[in-house]
Amino acid sequence: MLLINRVQDARSWPFGEAKKLLLRIEKIGKSEVILETGYGPSGLPHIGTFGEVLRTTFIMNAFKKMSNIPSKIIVFSDDMDGLRKVPSNVPNQELLTKHLDMPLTNVPDPFGEYLSFAHHNNSMLRRFLDSFGFEYEFKSSTEMYKTGVFNDHLFKLLEHFNDVMDIMLPSLREERQKTYSPFLPICKRTGKVLQVPIEEVNIPSKSIVYKDPETGAREEISVLDGNCKLQWKADWGMRWAAFGVDYEMNGKDLIDSFKLSSRICKAIGGLPPENLTYELFLDDDGKKISKSKGNGISMDEWLAYAPSESLAYYMFQSPKRAKRLYFDVIPNAMDDYLESITKFQMEDDDRRLDNPVYHIHNGNPPDYGDVPKFSMILNLVQACSTSDEEILMRFIKKYSSVTTKESLNFMSEMAKFAVRYYNDFIANTRVSVIPTELQMNALKHLVNELEKMDDISSSTDFQNAIFESGKKFYSNEIRDWFVTLYSVLFGAESGPKMGSFISLYGVKNTINLINKKLGKEGS
Hints:
Elements: H1 2-6, H2 13-28, E1 33-39, H3 47-66, E2 71-77, H4 93-97, H5 117-131, E3 137-140, H6 141-146, H7 151-159, H8 161-168, H9 174-177, E4 183-185, E5 198-202, E6 207-211, E7 218-222, E8 228-230, H10 232-243, E9 250-251, H11 255-267, E10 277-278, E11 281-282, H12 299-303, H13 308-316, E12 323-324, H14 330-346, H15 349-352, H16 356-360, H17 374-384, H18 389-399, H19 405-426, H20 437-451, H21 459-474, H22 478-490, H23 498-505, H24 507-517
Parallel strand pairs: 1-2, 2-3, 9-10, 11-12
Antiparallel strand pairs: 4-8, 5-6, 6-7
């Protein structure tokens, strides 16, 4: 009860959304809370889909801290939708082209591994989610339609066919208005999901009548048991009502769709869910990431260069701000995560509730101790001129006083990730800089200062020595001094906090590194 009382004042966004959810539940008197997140398996699941499930999990966990009312997340796959275009990032394009407009669960898997393309993509998503330990209930659109789970609400939508048309038609182009129907018949002859106008609505027989677009024959078909699929906006609103969904977030590009689906949900007697609109995920060119294009960075690619906690941290931050999902954001995400871990250990209980790592680790983040930042290890890889993780670990162990198995394993993983990231993304970008006379004099002065010190000195002592050398030669332009250090020593315009780097790398090693850059190889 004490925690439930304290979280009422928490300011982090998951608690803010959980408060909205709690007010809703108290108002309508439900005994269970349903949060939903959905995706279309018409292409390989991308990192944005994962991010939506992760953020929804943050909210559910926050809600559990505020209330004892049971809650669950439904992950819904719209796998009965027709394949409208062939994704460019999968093999066997010709095979998929032959199955355009077929339900995704009837489209062959281009990888030849699963029963269908939908089964392949569903499996990929579930593997991602399971690897993070998410709690969720997976639901397949095909299964929900064909087993009759949606039948009652499909019939309700049929009864309100004209109301739904009145909601949707003003939102469509004039040409689309002529063919639009919330119901998409599954063609008896071809098995394709048809987008055709409805000629007749037969409520007593729970059916619709349409013309076969190829033969022109009038066909009557039941709207129940998977004989028809709803257009996705109608489908969205229908399943909110069918499942009793209380919360679902969506991207900024779906604001209008959410409004239309909410009206459809109300038209058939449902209550639309609470909602958070998040900004879009972008690739390195600032374009929206897409399942069909495969642009941006994938889950597997991110996790090849940093642990899952860094990805969770990146997803947590500012959901209403657009995010670039590309390789160059990984080091900062990793450093920010480690900084939050360190802060958490020093914060009081109230402040901890708003620390991102509280949500990432569901209230129980690890204590790694005094570990170096990821960016520091990247520079260490360059300074040591090595990809040997054991050599890196010797420096890291010297820098960090932590000896617990959990911390050592974490640091070992960091070393592996840093070597891989440096070799793939940094090594070829570093440019050797020949120091000017001014720069050489400043660096020689720094060497003289460091020679008066040893590894017992603190990082603050090293930092002070660096500042003294800078002030002597760079006067008021101290920033130029640090640019000199980074450009000459690391071939970049920015780098680690130098005092901390010297503590990690060692005084003698740093002196040798500077002398090497000054052309004094034997020093």
